[in-house]
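Researcher: Next entry in the queue.
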Amino acid sequence: MDFSNKHVVVTGGTGALGSAVVAGLLAAGATCTVPYRHEAEAQHFAHRDHPNVKLIAVSDLSDEAAVAKVYAGLDLWASIHIAGGFAPGKVADTGKAALMAQLDSNLVSCFLCCRAAIGAMKAGGRIVNVASRQALEPRSGAGMTAYTIAKSGVATLTIALAEEVAKDGILVNAVAPSIMDTAANRKAMPKASFDAWPKVEEVAATILFLASPDNHVTRGAVVPVYGKS
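Model: Structure for this entry, 229 residues:
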């Protein structure tokens, strides 16, 4: 895959999956804009000093003005939306504030970034969102219903938007990961079968193809990336 002379925004790019995506993009010649929320994220980001990386501080990707700041002046090829948040909780224990937090961090942020990306794409491009396994298998979202609702919205957004912008040469897709093999997930679930979890590099490879010029025809897909789990 060749991303030479192509500009890509990666939200959530300083996280485990995002870092793997940015590494792949840089290796393929891309220039990357990576918004971050906390200074500690930027300080520990492995690619912070790469000449083709621009880090930009953004307080909240569910805020229209903040998103506009990220995409201002870009001639964009692709936008990859990994940023989001997770919080467990049964419906009986989830208030409106907690519900809205999940919707804002996962769905609203994705919607606004998609909108801004379309405006920054001068001659077609690619959008890749990150949904979740729960979005495709809602029964597995019991006990994390607000998160499941938000990620289901991301999946639906992906499918509907893909139809809207196909005529403009913009292909929109999503991946739906299961639990990924990260240090944080291993710490949270020390007795789990780590070998069954998909590796972040494997999920990143799927994202990179969907975002690449090599993807000529795939749109409106929500691709399961479950590994053996």
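Model: The chain has a mean pLDDT of 96.
Researcher: Noted, moving on.
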